[in-house]
Design goal:
single chain, 738 residues, alpha+beta, 7-stranded mixed β-sheet, 6-stranded mixed β-sheet, 19 helices, disordered N terminus, binds dioxothiomolybdenum(VI) ion
């Protein structure tokens, strides 16, 4: 078990993040920062109406601006083969066929793009593009439209709905969550360059270079290998970089049109309608228990908003089907088309939303039953097997997370009845909730290049979106080979490197770690093979039998059997030694289910005069299998919890139902926690490796850091003031009016 308080106990050490110095000195380049010769600057023009079609576009004035090279519109553009006709557009699954339609689906939809010699010229000219629209009816109001959308069954139904609804203890309530926007610190940007006929090079902010490569290969019908995607440093993603958005394609089209490299960076307001968001949602839960507190059944209905040009379903009820032993369960969902851009996965997508409803309902039930919420959960969690698939969990230590978290927050100081503890105008309360995430794993590959001086470079195409992937890779390579960390360099985020999955869904470390183990072993075996030419003892050894140092290879058991890299390089006339390793999921996935989980606890105070909520302490205990790097993992969990505080108390993308656009779509208008809002966050891990998931035993982290946060806060607010808050965000007005 590790215990971290990342605000107090962390001291900088030489063994920090591999990319830290590059990032803080500005040496590490984010996508928009590469200097590319002869680059032109592009600025998008967004639709000013939410629905209808383009009647005409007048570019005359805009074209007069000095420095303007060209302006793309749906009438003047290079044709994207993947958008050649309606059928191809559908098949491309790209979503918005940017510049290939005169239809308007949402306000802010890119309808033109100015390309100029400077950013200033492009920005000014973009403001002079005149568009006439044929306006059509629109709807951006989720709240008033969701009642019309029809629910469909989601997942396997269990038992019988009617058998339990007359249970002695039943909670039946509705929950609403406003749309939220990722807002990573780095804004999305693409520099596109056609380096030859059908040869494309992209510096692009994303969470998966191979995915970007695949999408453009499909759209332009060119081989994937002709496309290089570089995303070496990523300033946060939260899911916004998991798909290719219209602006990236716009940059590629622009470069094709002006036959020059084109750089396009979204403005912060453009990010709100350009790179996805967590959709608004409505849920209804009916939850029953017998007098002992054993859950008798659950009925979970969920709806989320989507766009009018694409169907996006969040998978809100997935988590409901995962955590608890519900013998009777029915889950239903539907989506609600709106004149907004398409939502996407965001920070614990689906599960965050669903978990808020079920964990709030369970808390409410605990008061009805007069049972402790901790004990009630321990009684009902499905610890042995995945209740949906019936497969046994490979490992599931959610019970230990709950027990440890309760100790860390001093749960025994919580008053079982609400509204019991005051401090002046403040009321104090405790709350908790749990969360779970399917622990996935994808196919990944990695390479190691070793130089004569013993320095190795570990490579994979996977991006590191700030989660510490590179640092974790270094840790694993060091553990397996024995080479000092100072001699292990990391290269990632380039599609020319060995392919790996996108970094998302808490799959990054789980997937890539296997490949790092394999390639580290391959390096040892390759060196042993060379060493055996000098010393017989190295013949037919296993990778575990040998150890590498900064100087050479030795037999673990004897230590005196040693061959230096120097000798190996000389004897074999080597320049660079290169090995590869692959790994991926296999038969184990047929035998076991895999999950990561966490328990969140919160102590907070609510001001009864102002409605302000001040979180005093947050505790998060997670089961993520083996923890590869303590600091990076704890940092990810506390960061995720801050995201959860935003979800609970502040974040809300407001829409203007009258004019059909977003309001307050910048970082002044969109509220999220700053340092003053972020409390002490104590993070701990169970730390037991999962023996089946991959060679390291590391399960995913990230999503479980946020999933239980918002309900833990809402539950603590109830404990403090006796008011049940079922709509997020819980802003002071809601508290005062409740
Ligand atoms: Mo995420 S929503 O796993 O990038």
């Amino acid at each position: 078990m590790g215990f971290f308080n990342d605000q107090q106990n962390f001291s900088p050490s030489a063994e920090g993040r591999v990319e830290a110095i590059a990032k803080v000195t500005g040496k590490g380049k984010f996508s928009a920062e590469y200097s590319v010769k002869n680059v032109a600057y592009a600025v998008l023009v967004g639709s000013t109406v939410p629905s209808g079609s383009i009647q005409s576009i007048n570019l005359e004035v805009a074209k007069e601006v000095a420095g303007v090279i060209d302006i793309i519109t749906h009438q003047h553009k290079p044709i994207v083969p993947g958008f050649a006709d309606e059928t191809k557009i559908k098949e491309s699954k790209f979503g918005l066929p940017v510049f290939h339609t005169d239809k308007i689906y949402f306000k802010g939809q890119p309808i033109a793009m100015v390309i100029a010699e400077t950013l200033e010229e492009a920005t000014y000219a973009a403001s002079l593009v005149e568009v006439q629209y044929i306006k059509d009816n629109f709807n951006v109001d989720f709240e008033s439209s969701h009642p019309k959308s029809e629910l469909k069954v989601e997942g396997k139904e269990r038992g019988n709905l009617s058998s339990w609804t007359s249970s002695p203890y039943v909670v039946e309530e509705e929950y609403n969550i406003k749309a939220e926007v990722h807002n990573p610190m780095e804004m999305h940007a693409t520099i596109a360059e056609w380096t030859g006929e059908n040869q494309l090079k992209l510096y692009d902010k994303n969470q998966g270079v191979n995915n970007v490569q695949r999408v453009f290969a499909g759209l332009f019908s060119i081989p994937e290998k002709n496309i290089e995607v570089i995303s070496e440093f990523v300033g946060g993603g939260f899911g916004s970089g998991l798909r290719v958005w219209p602006h990236a394609l716009a940059a590629v089209m622009g470069a094709k049109m002006v036959k020059r490299p084109v750089k396009l960076m979204l403005t912060r307001p453009q990010m709100f309608a350009g790179t996805g968001y967590r959709p608004a949602s409505w849920q209804k839960i009916k939850l029953g228990a017998d007098a002992s507190g054993k859950f008798s059944g659950i009925w979970h209905q969920a709806k989320n908003g989507t766009s009018v040009y694409e169907n996006f379903s969040e998978g809100i009820t997935r988590v409901t089907r995962l955590i608890y032993n519900f013998e009777n369960l029915k889950a239903e969902s539907s989506i609600v088309p709106l004149n907004l851009s398409t939502p996407t996965w965001m920070r614990g997508p689906g599960d965050c939303t669903g978990d808020f409803a079920i964990e709030s309902a369970i808390d409410e039930l605990s008061y009805k039953l007069n049972q402790d919420p901790v004990a009630l959960r321990l009684k009902n969690i499905a610890l042995d097997k995945n209740p949906e698939t019936g497969l046994p969990w490979s490992t599931n230590y959610l019970n230990e997370c709950i027990e440890m978290g309760a100790k860390m927050i001093n749960w025994n100081e919580r008053k079982p009845l609400p509204n019991q503890t005051s401090d002046g105008d403040w009321k104090i309360g405790y709350g908790m909730a749990v969360g779970m995430w399917n622990a996935g794993r994808g196919k990944a590959s990695a390479a190691i290049r070793m130089q004569k001086n013993g320095v190795i470079t570990v490579q994979t195409a996977m991006t590191d979106i700030g989660t510490g992937t590179g640092t974790g890779m270094q840790n694993i390579a060091h553990d397996i080979t024995g080479i000092p960390k100072s001699n292990i360099k990391i290269e990632l985020g380039n599609s020319n490197l060995p392919p790996a999955p996108s970094q998302g869904g808490s799959n990054g470390m789980s997937s890539v770690s296997g490949a790092i183990v394999e390639v580290s072993k391959a390096l040892k075996l390759k060196l042993a093979e060379y060493a055996s030419l000098q010393n017989d003892k190295f013949k037919n050894v296993k990778s575990d039998d040998v150890l590498l140092s900064d100087k050479g290879i030795s037999i673990k058991a004897t230590a005196k059997d040693f061959v230096s890299y120097d000798e190996i390089w000389k004897k074999n006339n080597l320049d660079i030694l290169e090995v590869e390793g692959n790994s991926g999921p296999g038969e184990e996935r047929k035998k076991y289910s895999f999950c990561s989980s966490a328990a969140h606890f919160c102590k907070l105070r609510v001001n009864t005069k102002t409605g302000k909520v001040k979180i005093e302490k947050m505790v998060c205990v997670a089961d993520g299998g083996k923890i590869v790097n303590d600091k990076a993992a704890a940092n990810q969990m506390s960061g995720a919890a801050v995201g959860g505080i935003g979800m609970a108390l502040m974040e809300e993308q407001m829409v203007d139902a009258k004019l059909g656009g977003l309001i307050a779509n910048d970082l002044a208008g969109y509220h999220f926690p700053v340092n003053a809002d972020a409390p002490m966050i104590e993070v701990a891990f169970i730390g037991k490796p999962d023996p089946n998931i991959n060679p390291t035993g590391a399960k995913g982290l990230g999503e479980v850091g946020i999933i239980g946060t918002a309900p833990a806060i809402a539950n603590a607010i109830y404990n403090a003031i006796g008011k049940r808050m079922r709509d997020l965000p819980i802003t002071p007005d809601k508290i005062l009016l409740a």
